[in-house]
Amino acid sequence: MSPQNEILLEVKDLMVFYENAVAINNVSLRCQKGKITGIFGANSAGKSTLMSTIAGLILDLKKKEERKGGERISWFGEIKFRGKDITNVEPFERASMGIILCPERRQVFPESTALENLKIGGYLATKEQARTSLEYVLDLFPELKPLLKREAGFLSGGEQQMLATGRALMAQPKLLLLDEPLLGLAPSVEARLAKAIKKINEQTDITVVLSEQYARPVFPIIDHGYVLENGSVVLDGTSEELMNNPDVLSAYFGI
Amino acid sequence: MELLIYGIVNSMSLILMTIGFALAYGVSRIPNFSHGALYILTGYMAYVFFAMLGLPYFLAILLALLFIGLVGAALYQFILIHLRGMPISEIIASFGVGLAILEFLRWAGLRGMAITIPPFIRGTTTVFGVILDYQRIIIILGGIGILFFLYFFTSYTKTGLAFKAIAQNERAALALGIDSDRAAVLAVSMGAVLAGLGGVFLLPLGNITVEMGYEVLIFALAVSIVGGIGSWKGVVYASFLIGFAQILTVRYIASHWHFVVALLLIIIVLIVKPSGLYGKQKELEERV
After folding, report:
1. What are the Cα distances from residue A204, in Å, to A110, A139, A196, A200, A218?
2. Which residues pair with A176 in a beta bridge?
3. Residue A174: which residues within 8 A CB-CB, separation 6 or more?
4. ipTM for the predicted complex
């Protein structure tokens, strides 16, 4: 296999159950190194569950639910990162392997300043890496420069998303998981962020997986897309293939 | 002048007594109800190392602090870790451990007024015309030192920043590679060391008694409720509020009322602003 189409992330026959309800039903997907993969679907299609299963946060959720005697969460199947099975690896270990999730609804640290958010993002980075990454993030999002001293909770949605993306970049990702990065943003800001995501992918060797409800704004930047419905993959293909599918156009792309 | 200086001393004492409780809660969301027991245990261990084993005083204190740090870590690693996310169980378990420690100490001979550790420096001096012993000056300086240390620790070190991250959003912190269990064990351990530091600063002023352990826990709760639980700013402001209220009560009403003032302030704050001066109602809701 040439390094050009090396598979960085492979999900094989993944099933996730919350108690007896199926959240992810037999999902398989492959993400090529250096590419952008999109995961599309309506609310409750399983996008966020899939993302947090890849990032390993579901292990933490399971642990907490077990301690409380709450919902039983279980999963079957395999998640491979760079050929290694990581299905039961703790989330912070996955992060240090380079799998970094930028969670849904941004989840910035609201009481910390923007700069502190970025510094926290650099938890896994060396001093040298943190310095270069900070420079890169501010270069990518110059809008953040005058806001560095501001508390993150007071930033606008678009600014928070830039901050959350920048924070994830500080963590030295190899695989960047963006869970609904454009949620609730104005169209002009959507375009701005989509461009930035493309730029990240082009300028660094970071592989991106992003999930969205409405595919239109990110459609031009993805290489490959999967469409989820009720936890199952109902369609997948390159962006052109998806674009030319009439069902997809009407149902998911709002065109 | 006397009121002002003794008010500051009293407020600083409250900060020293409670900052460890606030730190552990702020990071790990664990209300460590064995806080007062850890405070007394440190003093008692310092007494054991110094008076019974004859070690140099500062070495004895250092060993006692190290010991209490390990106790805190063990408390989390072996007991509290199983109860994360269940506040009532956390309270019962940590309070139980505190009871066990304090009553064990009583059984082991911590009775009456006989046991005490000496001040760091003996003697008194005059500050702005007020007679003040050196230990109380050390308390003021030590309190300020600890607050500065904590500020720099949480602003400039990776572990400190990780503490802040976990306190604000555990999931987001996990996704960035921060291990929440490791942060929590460190936080509870650090909270124990801070409780111990409070003990070695403050206990030389009086005797080491089991009752003092319960009293410290009540003060920690009073400061946390008045200031807003887990909030650092809240700890400082509430300590000064309660500290000065106590000194004024002692001066103008009667000295045995000073304990009631703290409790009265709890009730007033709970009526007027239930989340505390700097607390966030939102956090309380999320917790429920």
Report:
1. 28, 13, 12, 6, 19
2. A100, A208
3. A8, A97, A98, A99, A205, A206, A207
4. 0.92
Placement of tokens 């700097």 in the chain: B278
pLDDT tens by residue, chain B, 288 residues: 889 999 999 999 999 999 999 999 989 889 999 999 999 999 999 999 999 999 999 999 999 999 999 999 999 999 999 888 888 999 999 999 999 999 999 998 888 777 889 998 888 888 888 889 999 999 999 999 999 999 999 999 999 999 999 999 999 999 999 999 999 999 999 999 999 999 999 999 988 999 999 999 999 999 999 998 877 889 999 999 999 999 999 999 888 888 899 899 999 998 988 888 887 654 444 433
Dist. CA B93–CA B99, nearest whole Å: 10
Instruction: Compute CA distances A142 → A33, A63, A133, A138, A195, whole Å.
Output: 28, 40, 13, 5, 14
Which residues of B lie closer than 8 Å to A, measured between beta carbons?
A: 82-86, 155, 158, 161-162, 164-165, 168-169, 171-180
Residues on chain B touching A152 (C-beta within 8 angstroms):
none
CA distance A248 to chain B (A): 32
Tell whether A59 lies on the interface with B, counting CB pairs under 8 A. Answer: no
Q: What is the model's pLDDT at position B276?
A: 84
Task: Give B224's contacts (C-beta < 8 A, 6+ positions apart).
Answer: B18, B21, B22, B25, B230, B234, B235, B238, B276
Confirm if B275 and B256 have CB atoms less than 8 A apart: no
Q: Say whether residue A55 is in contact with chain B using an 8 A CB cutoff.
A: yes
CA dist., res. B178 & res. B172, Å (int): 9
Nearest CA of chain B to the CA of A254: how many Å?
31
Strand B124-127 to A99-102 pairing:
unpaired
Q: Do B161 and A119 touch (CB under 8 A)?
A: yes
Helix axes B2-28, B158-168, angle to 10 degrees: 80
Q: Pick the closest to residue B220 from B7, B24, B5 (CA basis).
A: B24
Residue with tokens 């993969």: A37
Q: How far is B230 from chain A (nearest CA, A)?
A: 13
Mean pLDDT of A202-229: 92
Query: Look-up: residue for tokens 């990162």?
Result: A81
Q: Which residue has the tokens 């045995």?
A: B256
First to last CA, chain A: 37
Q: Chain B contact for A96, CB < 8 A?
A: yes
A119 touches chain B (CB under 8 A): yes
Do the chains contact at B176 and A103, CB–CB below 8 Å?
no
Length of chain B: 288
> What is the nearest CA distance from B201 to chain A, expressed in angstroms?
32
Domain parsing of chain B, residue ranges: 2-224
